[in-house]
Specification:
seven-stranded mixed sheet, single chain, alpha/beta, binds zinc ion, globular
Length: about 300
């Protein structure tokens, strides 16, 4: 299985358009050791020919252009066979609306996530210009499904969603009551090799079921949004803690780094990294701590072969 990081940043990207924090200013001015990153998305493929996207970021157009394997091979064509959505946050699903050029799309998502995108959303009509423009395939927590494109041909990869403690997308907050299928992690398994990729880019807590889902996998991409709980509230950027935003911090005694360090996965990679996070700086103490624990920091263009 091939895995390509299309984007490694949390919502807003790095740098973020309205942010003048030390990291964003430093990366713009070239005064810190860090590279810009677009918003979180992975591309996975069984052999390099057929591709599946995990989340569709607002920067999907430039992400496709940045990776020749995703370029069309005929006048009207895309090697992207389907998109899997882990939740309905705009930084994870807005890209779908940028794929509106009358091309049939297959989307895997829980019923909750589909509902949040299709109901009471006048923009969604742009993806209903002809019958079957979008084929939705329902994901169910605890059930493993074959990944396939529009022709239904099995890819040899399966997807299994795992309920991940999270929150509703901001635009649905207060409109519907929360549900375990609002936010899921994804286990992608290759049938022939048995190799498993786990992708948990938004998770507020390491619950028992999540730890079980991570046990024995070969590669983990994990929520690296914040290093510390008060990363936004401390410098007065926002009055919320990491936990309020349903992102488990990396650092600290109860942070994800301690837990990830104990897992057996060959590759443990932080992704969905907020622009304020000190691990973005290649020479920071926090970056050294991540690497000393055997973990990595994702960057746009990173590739992992399982
Ligand atoms: Zn996000
Ligand atoms: Zn910033």
């Amino acid at each position: 299985m091939r895995v390509r990081v299309l984007g490694a940043a949390a919502g807003g990207g790095f740098p973020q358009w309205n942010c003048g924090c030390d990291n964003c200013r430093g990366v713009r001015e070239g005064t810190i050791r860090a590279t810009p990153r677009t918003q979180d998305s992975l591309a996975v493929s069984p052999g390099g020919d057929r591709w599946f996207l995990l989340n569709a970021s607002p920067e999907i157009r430039s992400q496709v252009e940045s990776f020749p394997s995703l370029h069309p091979r005929r006048p009207r064509h895309s090697p992207i066979e389907a998109i899997v959505l882990a939740n309905g946050d705009l930084d994870h699903c807005l890209g779908v609306f940028s794929l509106r050029e009358a091309h049939p799309i297959v989307i895997y998502a829980t019923e909750r996530v589909r509902h949040g995108i299709t109901e009471s959303n006048v923009f969604y009509r742009t993806l209903e210009r002809f019958p079957d423009q979008v084929t939705w395939r329902a994901l169910k927590v605890g059930r493993e499904d074959e990944l396939a494109g529009g022709d239904g041909r099995p890819s040899g990869l399966t997807v299994e969603p795992v309920a991940a403690p999270g929150k509703l997308p901001v635009h649905l907050d207060g409109l519907v009551s929360p549900d375990p299928e609002d936010n899921v992690g994804l286990r992608i398994r290759e049938r022939t090799s048995g190799r498993v990729l786990a992708y948990f880019s938004a998770i507020g807590k390491l619950s028992r079921s999540v730890l079980q889902a991570l046990d024995g996998v070969d590669c983990i991409f994990f929520d690296g949004t914040f290093w510390s709980s008060d990363e936004l509230s401390g410098p007065g950027l926002m009055a919320k803690t990491a936990e309020d935003l349903a992102h488990l911090p990396i650092g600290g005694e109860d942070g994800s780094l301690q837990a990830l360090a104990r897992l057996s996965a060959r590759r443990r990679v932080y992704i969905h990294i907020n622009n304020t996070n000190p691990i973005l700086r290649e020479d920071s103490a926090e970056r050294r701590a991540v690497e000393a624990a055997g973990c990595e920091v994702a960057f746009d263009g990173m590739e992992v072969t399982l």
